[in-house]
Structure formats: structure tokens, C-alpha cells
Amino acid sequence: MGFYSRMRMSPYFSPAVKALAWFPVVMFFVDHGFSYGTVHGRSMQPTFNPDSNKMWRDRVLLNKWAVTDHEFQRGEVVTLTSPSDPKCVLTKRIIALEGDTVQPLKHNKTPVYVPKGHCWIEGDEAFHSRDSNTFGTVPMGLIKAKVTHVLFPFDRFGPVEKRPISKRVTVGFIQPGQDDDYW
Predict the structure, then answer these.
(1) In angstroms, rounded to a whole number, what is the distance separating the alpha carbons of residues 80 and 68?
(2) 8 A C-beta contact, residue 49 and residue 39
(3) N or C end of the chain, less CB within 10 A?
């Protein structure tokens, strides 16, 4: 009896083949659908990791499918590739969208106009964050996922709240998805 024949006789062969058949589906779902991530650092306190003395970090649900249409709202939390270090993934809040004007946190800076296809991102703990105040507007193509829920710790389980628009933002008269002929 050959090797293949012995393999087929094994009670584990059929379940293993069925499981392997689902592997591409699972990989597609993780790459393009939903997955989870860990938030490190203080830049998003108190939304994430509110007590930096604890040993654990917040685990969050990442909705990768939601970014395929590039429809974002001010106040949403997203993950994105860092424009200054492509190996680093940042978790930040969208403060302003294309067409808006933002007054950076550094008081001597002039207001910044957010060009088409870009956004302004900041951490909730702005003075402990490397964000648009450091590297300017960010291309929306760098956004990888929307952060929708806190999964762990369980006492904070639930949806991530959207914050109201900052007083430093002047909303542009052009809304994304409308007046596209203007651009």
C-alpha cells in the first residue's frame, strides 16, 4: 500500500482537506474584511489604553472593508500606514477631510488647507502624538481600516465613539462625494 493510499485511510485526511479548502476564504476575509489589532502607546488616550499603568493594551476590531470606497467622516478612528515610516501602523482620529481648513496645534503655524484625496489626523492625546501636526496632511490611500469596536478589556467592550468636529477646523463648502466636478 502506497503513501497516498495510507493517507486517505487516515480518519484525519478528509477533515484536513476540508479545512485546507477554506484557507483561501479565511485569508481573504482577514485581508479584506475584518480583523483585530492591538493599540500601543498613549497617543489615543483616553479612547484607547486609558490607564497606561496596566500591563495589557486595548484590542480593537478593524473593519478593512469599510475603507474600500474611501468614504470617511470627521471624528472616525482609523489605522493607517505612517507617512514618515512605512513599516509603522498608526491609530488616529480623522479631524478634517478634503476641502477643510485646520489650525495646527502649534500656535505660530498658519492654517492648513486639506487638498483633495487627503485628510488631517490627530491622536486624542495630541501632545503625545505624532500626527498631522508633525507631518502634515495624509493621503487617504494610506488608511487601512476603520476602528469600530473595543474588544478587550471586556469592561470597555463596545463601539468606538466618534468625536465632534474640533473648533480648529473650518469645514469646507465641498463635501466628499459631492461637487466632484469642482476638483
Answers:
(1) 13
(2) yes
(3) N
Q: d(Cα 98, Cα 167) in Å, to the nearest integer?
A: 17
What are the angstrom distances between the C-alpha of 150 and each of 35, 88, 139, 180, 181? 12, 21, 26, 35, 39
Q: Virtual CA dihedral for 99, 101, 106, 108, nearest 10 degrees?
A: 130
DSSP structure class, residue 167: T
Smallest Cα–Cα separation from 47: which of 167, 169, 130, 147?
A: 147
Query: Where does the pLDDT of residue 176 fall: very low under 50, low under 70, confident under 90, or very high at 90 and above?
Result: low
List active site positions.
Answer: 43, 92
158 three-class SS: strand
Q: Which three cell numbers stand for residue 4?
A: 497516498
d(CA 35, CA 26): 11
Is the predicted pLDDT of residue 178 greater than 80, yes or no? no
Q: Write down the pTM of the prediction.
A: 0.82
Which residues have CB under 8 Å from 80's CB, separation 6+? 89, 90, 92, 121, 138, 142, 143, 144
> Is the pLDDT reported for residue 128 higher than 90?
no
